[in-house]
Design brief:
- Helix 8 links the parallel strand 7 and strand 8.
- It is built from twelve helices and eleven strands.
- The relative contact order is 0.14.
- With 299 residues, the chain is of the alpha/beta class.
- The chain folds into three domains: 79 residues, Orthogonal Bundle (Arc Repressor Mutant, subunit A); 102 residues, D-Maltodextrin-Binding Protein, domain 2; 102 residues, 3-Layer(aba) Sandwich (D-Maltodextrin-Binding Protein, domain 2).
Length: 299
Amino acid sequence: MKVTFRQLRVFDTVAMLGSVTKAADRLGMSQSAASSALADLQIILRRPLFVHAKGRPLQITDEGMRLRPIIRSLLTEIDEIEHNTGNAPLAGRLVIGATATIAETVLPRLCVEFMQLHPEVQIYVQAETVGGLFERLQRFELETALIEIFPSVEGIELTRWRTDELVLVVAADHPLANRGGLTIRDLAGHSWCTREANSSTTSRLRYVLHKKIGQFPVAFESTSNWAVRHAVIAGGGIGCLSKALVQYDLDNQRLCRLDVADFGFTRALSLARPRGIARSRLAVAFDEFLLDRGDAGDQ
């Protein structure tokens, strides 16, 4: 017996979804056919690629983890041979992962610009938490994701992309609106609208402000940046949001930026990709497009 393309595809899909049943559904085949293909592959390789302990979900073995990037790269190369030639126009559906702030601000415009350059491409943006995006990248379920931090994560290549500035904003009729000479101490006693308490933005905001005003009262809290924005516009309190998210509101005076002399808050936006695998020509082209429009491309 020899290894077949079908067996490799089943292995890759099971590793991605963690279930033979889900893999069979994704591939449009019966569960018995998927199980048989996976069993045959393990027989040919003479080693287990998955283990299924009683009462626990399917787990990939160390050998399966070692083979996974090799098999994923091979499948990508085969897909490229079957569907593309080097000079053919870019085409197909590209799934991009992004954290909420990026998905709601700069990314849609860049996606449209890319699709205008390549009319046969469709882009699907999926907004998730950083942790969720890292898990999907490590399963090779995503080829590209955009995140708001720049950590070191095993199996993931991170490239600095842009710098995001966060600003303090209030409704136009807020007592602090249009006041000059503000300092952090002037913010004491005012209510806030923030992201959830365990978000990276709120955690860092508390750290920046704590020394001078201690704990600040949160009147409105949400997992959605847009919800926080709307709460601030409605007069709910001070918000700390990406400048890109509120620029339209600032330009149209729905919101007022607080000019606080001793407050500064920037964060790195990063391009995250699985390390050590061959990637599709479409994904590589989109990454290059993004990086060209990042901080380095603006210089």
